[in-house]
Amino acid sequence: MSSANFDFGGWLESARVGRILNDALRDADDGELYLQTSQSERLSFGDGRLLGASFGISQGFGLRSICGDLVAYAHANKFDEAALGRAADAVRLAQRGRTGSWDVSPPRKKRPHYADVNPVDSISFEAKLDLLSSIDAYARSKDPRIFQVGVSVSGSQKLVNILRPGEQSFSERRSNFSLGVTVTAREKGRTESGHKGIGGRYRLEDVLAEEVWHSIVDEAIRQADVNLRSVDAPAGAYAVVLGPGWPGVMLHEAVGHGLEGDAIRKDASVYAGRLGQQVAAPGVTVVDNGTLPHKRGSMNFDDEGTPTQETVLIEDGRLVAYMQDRLNARLMGQTPTGNGRRQSYASAPMPRMTNTYMREGKYDPNEILASVREGIYAVDFGGGQVDTISGNFVFSCREAYRIRNGVLQEPIKGATLIGNGPEAMRRISMVGNDLALDDGIATCGKEGQDVLVGVGQPTIRLDEITIGGTQ
Amino acid sequence: MSADPPELIERTLELSRKEGASEVEALLQQTLVTSVGCRNGTLEKVESAESSGLSIRVFVGRRSASASTSDLGREAVRALVRRAIAMAAASPEDPFSELTPASELARKPEMDLQTCDTASLTPAELLEMAEAAEAAAISVKGVVATRGAGASFSESRYRLATSNGFVGEQAGSLFSVGCGAIAGSGGSRVSDGDSSNSVYLGDLGAPALVGKTAGERAVARVGGRRMTTGRVPVVFDARVSNSLLGHLAGALSGAAVVKGSSFLQMKLGCRVFPESIDLIDDPLRARGLRSRWFDGEGVATRRVALVQDGILTTWFLDRATAKQLNLRTNGQANRTGAGTTPGPSNFYLAAGDHTPQELLSDIKYGLYVTAVMGQGVNGLTGSYSRGATGFLIENGEITVPVKEVTIASNLLEMFGNLTPADDLEFRYGIDAPTVRIDEMTVAGSRPPVREDSKQQTT
Fold first, then answer.
1. Rounded Cα gap, residues A222 and A103, in angstroms
2. Which of B29, B48, B257, B377 to mutate to test the interface with A (most CBs of A within 10 A)?
3. What is the tens place of the pLDDT at every residue in A248-270?
């Protein structure tokens, strides 16, 4: 990271920038100047060779002014005072005729949740190439059915500085890396693939012992093998047992988006107006926690400067809190929860999840499986989607098995599960004691903005949900 | 447009050569966007943005690497070039990636693709449009609220230059208006919406009509129930049938084919669709949402028939994938952060001979789909399983609303039993008419004989 960018064109010390900012937000309820500079690098290997190597720098500022519920936002990708001046003019024009009273500032954070590291340059380009090459060779050597191996490694760092008028800036570095392996195998004329990825706020060398990437490859191969044996999935309503960890994407869709403060305030969620009510089965506790060490979804403070925290959303089945950014908290008379996030300087923040998971319950996972006479056991998923107004959500499984008389049987092909959030949450009848979080590869999209998140849960039993197979 | 000097791109080429690149491609993109959102008749959001980005692909012999930056200062560009060249020099040779040779570079055609309107809209005019859309939605009987309405206007400039003499520039404009409406009551509310996007302001859907459509669609969803599980014909409304082309485009990309990860891998020259079905990519359509006269590698674009009379005739190709497949590029290179990848421009399924009503007429019991959800499509196997919303088809008529079902099949089977209607309109960039698929498995309510012994709680 060149030193010229580190100080954001001198803006952090510039009296003139301070004056423009004060002036732009003088009559506002809230707002800030968000400065960002990011570096990212990606290498991808496929077909036995390097397919591509790319490097990118992204930087810019976003100026936000809020009066009441009107958000005025202007952004540009240069630290140039003329551009800031134009941005200030634009937000003042939008807020013309409105005045507010300046809101309380976010408190200061005490303890970081990950190291201040640069994962992009911590190991050399050549070393990364060697790594990909070794992973490729290892994968091909493990199973003769494999004819294609894809490996990608990416690292990024994002330096964030949030300037509020008359205050010291909030600043931190957020790093992220991920490593993914996909293998494609063919047997008896049938082709299937398997995938495994890991990631988080680490440096690459912190997690890349040989045994670590061996196990990533082994897992991808195992999944391809399972898929080669999979049969058509059934269609209809079944009891479903979801495995620990990544299947928590169900929660993300079934309740997560519906509990974001903007959807609640605008009455665009099936959970609006339901604080205090039973929205899930007893024994179900769901939290959103932005403080988990090293986790992809964690931050030290959110993109408005509010420290992240653990927020219990649903406690023993009762809805107790929403995820709030500053705007929606203020308009609803609540407290920000550190969930105000944005993809980059190019967007205004809105309530978003961090790491969202269900706490463990009392059941042994084997007991949960044994309880199902006719159903499905699903352990890996692609992504999902939700319509927060109706509460209907989907998530697509990638590795699943039939259960008959409490015993796991043949693997079934991927299928989409569909349900209704409140109904599905009330049908959780058993919660396991094996909480796990996903391995750090989840991205959440909302209104065209992507943020890094985490999901998780223990093994759980859903008494009934519709599975979209072909049988 | 911003004050970045147009010589920036030429300077970057020169600098790259000086720093050791044998060949280089540079792309400069600049965009200005203004958007407004309103809800309950008042302004809720105003956003304005200026952005620019430079991306380069450098070659050191047969080694290459890509880099991009939004910091266009001299020092930053120099550092970027050096880094890209260092990455390229450290990379193994790639037998397939190369710049387009000078003799094959595109020349600006005579025809005007009309990619950029001279009209523009102020924030106040955008607000007027958003308010008109929302007001129209609210006035539809049965609409209880809106999710808001929005309108936006953007202008862009795109300039690609190569070290072997290509310079191509294209300006663009985009106008949008959209609205979401909510209907129903209590815990059973539903929502739906409509939007319009166009290159020319004159082609944009009237905001009041967009709002009215949003409202009517939301009201039509009220009272949705699940269907019984079973195999039925499925008809995709033209607002959602283009999603099938999206999956097809992924499987037709040269990048998937060279990796062996396309379910259509072995089908070149084979029948994939019924007779008389054509799937066309046309980058040269005037006012098309994705029109361009040169692709991401400076190759001349042209109309390509991916599927002709139901036979798969070619893939989406760029130079590298074409070379690997012993074919020639067909000008379908799309730029990404890491170079190019082959993909569609204005891609469409040509209109068939039947009206949508005729497609429905012999369906005694089926599903008419107006929205799909989720990602359950596997490009390697063609396996398809997605959430769906729509209406029952009973005895040739669209009847009651359906919600919370899935539709599943395999894309090979779906494409092989597909009939397009005649109502093709160019609205999205990837477009299709109403489409009928002869049979898919719908999963909805519990099929008759299935019981679980676990005690139900609550």
1. 54
2. B48
3. 999 999 999 999 999 999 999 99
